[in-house]
Amino acid sequence: MKTAPHKTLRLGAWALLLLALALPNIAGAVVLDDETRDEIILEDGTHVILYAKAGSTSGSRTREWYYLPPTETLRLATRPDNTPEFLFMKFTEEASEELGGISGAIMHFLMTWGLTPEQHEELAGVLKEKHRGAILKGPVPLEPDDDGGSFRIISATMTDKGLTPSITMSNRAPLTAGDRAAAAARLTAQGAQLMAATFEQTSSIADLSIELNYSFLTLAPAARGRIVIDWSKIRTQSETLEAEYKKWQSGKRVKKVSFLGIPIYKSSTPIYSRSYDEMRREYDFLRERQVIRVEFDQLRDGEATQKMQDAFFQVFMNMVAETSAPDDGVPPPPSDKEKETVPNIKYGRSYKYKKSFVRNVDHRKTQTLVLNSRTSIRNPISMTANLASWYEKASHYDSCVGSVILNDRFFKHRDIRFILDLDAKDLFDEQINYVTVNVRKRRSSGAPFEDSFTIDSKYLEEHGVTAALTYARGEDTDPDAYQYKSQWSLRSGEVYPKNPGYIDGDWEGVTLAPPVAIRTVEVEADLDELEASGITRATVQIHYSRFGKEVVDNIHVSPAQGQPLVAKRIFLDRDMKGYAYRVILNHKRDGKLALEPHPLVNDDYIFVTIPEELRDETSELHRAAKETAVEITEKGKDKILDRFSDLLEGGD
Predict the structure, then answer these.
(1) N or C: where does the chain have the smaller number of CB atoms within 10 Å of the terminal CB?
(2) Where are the beta strands (DSSP E) in 547-590?
(3) Residue 66's closest CA among 43, 33, 35?
């Protein structure tokens, strides 16, 4: 008898599948290799940690490297002339507070992080010397803290409402090097004195620290495994194995079949059909009898190992079995216990061992399958700095630190400050040209103050996310009351809203939020289920309101692409709670099948399921799905948001 040599098969495709299963939330993200890490100390003493980008398979890496931003790079932002963007202005009046006088301080600063161009160049050179061909791509792609605390101000003074009546800050920490976050505060006289004392006296630190909290993803080994199949035992010990298997079934009633499809009883016709559960039992029996040996090196949690166990069994099934033809009979329905442990998709089918497998058993000896899987790790990272380390430099600039006596009410001036919501920066690249703000200050006597400004991409590059207007108080008796309105110019050529109205503003500052919010919608499907059901592509139509109009975006998932999870960004009206979606299936024989739409509130994850009734071509659901698909095709994009307006529109 001829036997094939000992054979080892590395399951690259299955490794990629397990990787996709282990990382459902990072589609499109840069993921780093947890095992490929380096540390470099620059000439100025800055300690930098770097990671290589993970390769497509375990043990491989790319030439691309990313650095973790060192805490030392957290600093005040500066203008083109190197002036720190920091203001600490103490103010007082001749009159006492009892007579209507005011005193205190305002503080406003912008901060950023990242290596300087000189540090980046030095780091890239050292990295290339240590790792041949290495390319420094930039800082590690960061994600803000999930708990909403990505940008924190730590200060006993500024968290005390009695000392700091108001504070305004950016919604989140800057995500990329060079981006800025802003904070502004109005302090009472006592709060100003306390804060100034920690700045200007010989204190070890100031009563103001900045903390940025992020996370980043790395891939680390989860488990390594191998499976060894001794095909020779199946042939040489088939009768013994069959007898032991019947006994191993523990009294269960089992059809009299040829074990593993190998004819044992020459006088009878072998029966090849089996249920999924019977196939699994035979596989488990072979493992127990050491015909199949499965070995794992557990490195992390057991979930990854369980996925590998299931993957090995599926590979075994693909090698030896095929789905039975309809005339082979249908296996009995699963028990309640079986339904709890095995997905229902595995039932309603029968399997039989391939004839080619039966014929080739004689020619096989042993075979080894090797599978490695990796798992994602979300690593926290924080950057913290105390303002004392920044204040000394800023104090040398008169425009940054000073004091003023407000002794003439007529000539008193007030600043109105606006801060652009950081989410709006992304929208300027894709949806928005600019935002124009009109300010109106009505005085108790004299002409009103009116002015405006515009923020566009050029303004953001030169001035950052803040803007300010200054007006004279004159003889006005209510200096803090003013109104403003904003209008956004869209890339489509429209303006929104068309006729904005004035709203009351706060003297401490106003945050300009865009009319739309960015949402990332994730669509996932079981590719095996789609393919088995004859579905070549599943399309999820997302219907949402953007600038007051219903917009439709499509997200496609198909077995041909081999990507079970697809993500897409949409720009949804800020006052909308959610959106609606419709699933359209492309069937090999039946064409398009369109299911009924559903609303989705406060959730950005959609899993495509195929209703069991839809598989029956004579069912009412199947007929309605075909008719709906034809109707949509004939009239184009249908509008469905009105059906769910009570659920999706803003309000209580």
Answers:
(1) C
(2) 549-557, 565-573, 578-587
(3) 33
- DSSP H helical ranges for 27-99: none
List of residues 6+ apart from 247 with CB closer than 8 A: none
Cα separation, 113 vs 177, whole angstroms: 6
Mean pLDDT to the nearest integer, 516-527: 88
525 forms beta bridges with: 608
Q: Flag whether pLDDT at 158 surpasses 70.
A: yes
How far is 52 from 31, CA to CA, in rounded Å? 9
Tokens matching residue 396: 């040398």
Residue 362 has pLDDT above 80, yes or no: no
How far apart are the C-alpha atoms of 260 and 283, rounded to whole Å?
10
Cα–Cα distance measured from residue 207 to residue 386, given in angstroms and rounded to the nearest whole number: 8
* HSE of 641, CA atoms in CB hemisphere, 13 A: 20
Phi, psi (rounded to 5 degrees) for 164:
-130, 90
pLDDT (average), residues 56-62: 71
Domains of the chain and CATH, by start = 7-11+223-375 (no CATH), 31-208+387-407 (no CATH), 411-514 (2.60.40), 516-648 (2.60.40)
Average pLDDT over residues 264-286: 65
Give the span between the Cα atoms of 422 and 288, in whole angstroms: 59
Taking phi over 0 as left and psi of -120 to 50 as alpha, with beta for the rest, 399 belongs to: alpha
Q: Structure pTM?
A: 0.49
With bands split at pLDDT 50, 70 and 90, how would you rate the model's confidence at 252?
Answer: low
Instruction: Locate 510 and state its tokens.
Output: 């106003």
Q: 391, exposed or middle or buried, with CB in 10 Å at 0-12, 13-18, 19+?
A: buried
Question: What pLDDT does residue 245 have?
Answer: 76
Inter-axis angle of helices 238-248 and 276-288, nearest 10: 110
pLDDT tens digits, residue range 440-497? 888 777 778 889 999 888 888 888 788 888 777 666 667 667 889 999 888 777 888 8
Indicate the range of 36-40, 230-234, 477-481 predicted with least confidence.
477-481
